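Researcher: We're teaching a course module on how sequence relates to structure. For the next exercise, students receive a sequence and then see the predicted structure as tokens, so they can try to spot secondary structure elements on their own. Here is the exercise chain.
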Amino acid sequence: MNLFRPTLLSLLIAQVAITNAEQRFKYYDHITFYDVYAGTVNDSVAPVPEGIYRLNNARFTTLLPSADLDRMGDSLRLEVSISALCDNYDRIGSVDLVLMPNDSLIYNDCIHTKPNGSTYSGRLGDTDPSIQRIEVGRFITPFMDMNKGVDVPYSWDISFLSPLLHDKQLRDSMNLWLEFHLEGVPYAANTQIAGCSGRKDVFAGTLEIVSNDKRDDVLLQHQLTLPLAYERYLNSYSKGHSDEEGTTVAHYQVHLDEPMNDAMFLMINSNHGANSGGEEYNRRLHYVWVNEWMAMVYRPGRTSCEPFRMYNTQANGIYGSSTMTDETWQSFSNWCPGDVIDNHIIHLGAIPAGDYDFRLMVPDAVFNDNQGYFPFSLTFFGVKEGDIDGLQTILDERTPSTKVSWDGDHLLIDNHGGKIVEWTLLNAAGQRISVQPGSVNEIKMSNHPTSVYILLLLMEDGSTEVHKFFKN
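Model: And here is the predicted structure for the students to work with:
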């Protein structure tokens, strides 16, 4: 008796499973980072694996092999794991994709100046136009004691890079390099952490790209990638760090000679400034405009940082000694030590040729005592055929839960998806007409002129809904 008789359906299911098999590409395996402010460690003292290059103590790079790129599918996930050595503070790290002419073997670092005037050899390619750098993932380390070993995981969906990685025409002229960047400082740990006296090693990191192997060769796309900003230190008090001194505005323009079937901006931005009243501790509304369209409004920060407490093995003033409420976290934390910084996707869809004006505005940013900054990165992606991979899932997750309607005199708000904790009414120019705490069911509009208006709803979970309407 034949107990197993394969059917056409079972064979098809098996074939799908095979063609969507998960593949893991490990590019860094417990690579060691050193004091960002010290002289670059010599490879003879601290060797690096073959094919990996130390650009400075805080940054490594490696070439993405064509054979790996050919095997990757249309689903891409970036995974990073960090463990502590002799740094017990929260630090910033990133993963960057670098496009460089393939007639160049390697590239060097350059001196970078922070807004406070200090310099260190940390940002690369700022003065070399042949190097195009794209930040694809940013993260914050926890406060960690290396003697209480934990591995801290970070993950990002980077499927939107699939058209770029599979662009054979681009790869005929450009090499793709993958950078791993983490700025650590050992000075506190040298005295506070047992076993760290005199040491300069700060963190160890592992980096992988996880992919399926499904790729439809029919959809080999002609794509356009325009890196516009890389960790620009946006602030309102330093010349050249904002479009206009005294404001907090990042403004970029993209000109397209031909239409795009699908397009998006990738924006990464985080708020830093640990001084009293600093920007790390004040959640500001961030407004993103593309031409005259308000594309995104958000207030940084998680509902709670408690899920990351387990990784914070060193006592610190952020987490304290006991669990905190969601309300307490939302009152001061822009990000969580041990968490990723969000990749903000501004999806444009199909767009015609022409000019596109991008603006990020943070009008309430104060930068107390002229301290703090917002590292800001921006890249434009477009494809001429097909769609950018992975975006539909992102869009589905952002569908507003609130219904907003207009009865000729009142704006009516019908909310069933979550508690509204603050609402803001803006005019067509983006100027705030009213900001009110608490929930709202209707807004009287009879005293406002005929125009386009934007209603922003801040929800209890920290998300923001944007509703645009016309008062006639």
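Model: If you want an answer key for the exercise: The two ends are 77 Å apart (CA to CA). Residues 20-397 form a domain with the Jelly Rolls fold (CATH 2.60.120.230).
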